[in-house]
User: Which sequence fits this backbone?
């Protein structure tokens, strides 16, 4: 039970009951009791605040793997860079291992970061990355499903259906594919799944 629940369940009823009893027995001390109540509430609030502030879960990145998809550019690239700075072992999935995005990560990041060719639309690519993570023996602490494409085409029946199939295969089924094959490792480590979406999906 949290401190807030304890406050609502035990402290406040006790305070109100004591207040009524004191008022009935000695009305002259009513003002003094109000001051006491005020100070008690302030003290409890401060104690609760400091308890919550110092009781935050501390995440130790050492020895934890985070898989990030779509690291060639944009959010994925910056996320991989930042996680490496924090001390995680980052597995950065890219479409082009020799591209500019992969090269920048190699130059700026530590040896903990691994660049892996990973097309989320291809089951073999996903399974190969998951197998490499298994072989490390380290827990898969999180996956960041960031890979996505945006194709700005007017929605009318004159467009080729392949346009929509390609978009869904990356943005929807790619996310499902990566999550599905990572799920056993995430369950084992009590890990996290972070899905990056676009406002274009509204």
Assistant:
């Amino acid at each position: 039970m949290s401190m807030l629940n304890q406050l609502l369940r035990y402290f406040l009823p006790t305070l109100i009951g004591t207040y009524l009893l004191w008022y009935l027995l000695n009305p002259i001390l009513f003002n003094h009791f109000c001051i006491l109540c005020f100070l008690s509430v302030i003290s409890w609030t401060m104690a609760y605040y400091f308890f919550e502030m110092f009781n935050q879960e501390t995440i130790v990145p050492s020895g934890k793997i985070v898989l990030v998809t779509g690291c060639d550019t944009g959010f994925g690239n910056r996320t991989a860079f930042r996680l490496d700075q924090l001390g995680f072992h980052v597995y950065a999935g890219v479409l082009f291992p020799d591209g500019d995005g992969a090269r920048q990560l190699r130059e700026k990041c530590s040896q903990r970061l691994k660049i892996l060719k990973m097309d989320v639309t291809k089951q073999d690519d996903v399974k190969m990355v998951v197998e490499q993570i298994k072989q490390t023996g380290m827990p898969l602490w999180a996956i960041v499903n960031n890979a996505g494409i945006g194709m700005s085409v007017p929605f009318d029946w004159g467009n080729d259906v392949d346009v929509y199939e390609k978009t869904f295969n990356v943005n929807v089924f790619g996310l499902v594919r990566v999550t599905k094959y990572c799920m056993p490792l995430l369950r084992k480590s009590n890990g996290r799944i972070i899905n990056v979406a676009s406002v274009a999906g509204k």
In short: DSSP finds seven helices and five strands in the chain.
